[in-house]
């Protein structure tokens, strides 16, 4: 695994440094192949090999879509050449409106498959649990953002000025992605799989901001487009911070206990207090709770959504509030998801011997998590400098930049107008710190100093089994019954022993991914059937081969004639 890690880093850096399509695609494919090798590093497990193959197929599909997009952009000039593959040449001539629309769709497919947009997300819940935790942190926190960069580079930079409707397909995909991602996460019981599905939700939030930026820029509101694009880029930075923190915490738990299953954990706050504190910061940040960084970027996105009534297009006036409602639902479900994750893993009592014997992570891991937690807090209480730093990327893409925020009094941010909305993360942090400190002082001052310990009330049962606590499945049961039955075909099967039998009752839960069941599985069967039929070509005689080549040549000549 060791040589592929720096190769993975090199591939991602090559993508963002590329100034022509060939270098971009070479870096993109190099990044995909290196990350595939990292995903299958534990290749002795069959499930890991399957995850790697699914990831590789999705990566190949994304590369093909991006290759076609760059081909259309390069063909907008006098012809396709090495010079035409440079980004400066693509900007100079620009595609036709029809070609630009096709490029938008191809970019959404190519970058969306790597980022994890629904329904192209199927590799994420498989690859992230299979990869080592530090690789998962890099893939989820950084690689998916390279995909976001690819989309921005093609659509905002190379495809020319957007049409009024360009934001519509992006928003139609992004809103359901945010909700579906967090619902996927609520159905999972593997810690790393929960985090992987949560990445889908956050990618949806980022693409909501990008869709808003396209809609506002195309309809003559560049200032609001700058706000929406800033919100998307801010969330890119935020997700890289708190998702890396959470994957590092999941890796620390895995090393300490050997378990990823939430049902085998619990009570780790006593054995791993520093890891628990860092994970609490990450869980609060990804749940968009102030004064942490996740709140600021989502708040900025909602500020842009609230300005949608000023748009001249009625379709966007109706679509954007609906996407805002989906975003609000996703935010609420994300809070429930990470209350579930943190509570089951760190609170209560250990559910297994491995959890009860856990030890704190090593110093390097704790330092990495503490550094990321501090950055999450710093970006939340000092968002103005971060917003100002992002304007160097925002201004070239939409033509204007947000008003400077770093100089405002009391470290406030005012994204639109002072009389409309403002936020001060520093004052919120001070208020929370003072309130918590005063509450703690009051408890110590007026509470009894005597300590009394007694067994917990067990409803009259003599047993004291930690398995009687809430489980990950039971915590998510109400949401699973509300959403899971219709969206994921979730089914609960209860095995109840007959009277007098002391065997425990059993509850088993099954669900399916509709994207896999209705799109990729039938597509896989069709490809398998076609490839089986194509095997007959291997048994043709020489005359049939010559006829086949002649027919293919005639077909290509007809296509060239029609193209000319």
Describe what you observe in this structure.
This protein is mainly α. The protein is 69% helix and 2% strand. It has 22 helices and two strands. The protein has a two-stranded antiparallel sheet with strand order 1-2. Helix 13 packs parallel to helix 16. The longest helix has 36 residues. The mean pLDDT is 89.
Q: Helices, strands, pairings?
A:
Blueprint: H1 4-17, H2 21-39, H3 46-74, H4 87-93, H5 97-115, H6 124-130, H7 133-158, H8 167-187, H9 191-218, H10 222-257, H11 268-271, H12 273-286, H13 293-305, H14 314-346, H15 353-356, H16 363-381, H17 383-398, H18 425-446, H19 472-475, H20 477-487, E1 491-495, E2 506-510, H21 514-534, H22 542-563
Antiparallel strand pairs: 1-2
Helix pairs in contact: 1-2, 1-7, 2-3, 3-5, 3-6, 5-7, 6-7, 6-9, 7-9, 7-10, 8-9, 8-14, 9-10, 9-13, 9-14, 10-12, 10-13, 10-16, 10-17, 12-14, 12-16, 13-16
Q: Which residue ranges are poorly predicted, with pLDDT under 50 across at least 5 consecutive positions?
A: none
What is the overall pLDDT average? 89
| Range of strand content | under 5%
Radius of gyration: 26 Å
Helix content: 55-70%
Give the overall form. globular
For the biggest sheet, the summary is: 2 strands, antiparallel
Tally of DSSP helical segments: 22
Can you count the beta strands?
2
Order of helices and strands: HHHHHHHHHHHHHHHHHHHHEEHH
Structural class by sheet pairing and helices: mainly alpha
Terminal residue distance: 50 Å
Strand order of the largest sheet: 1-2
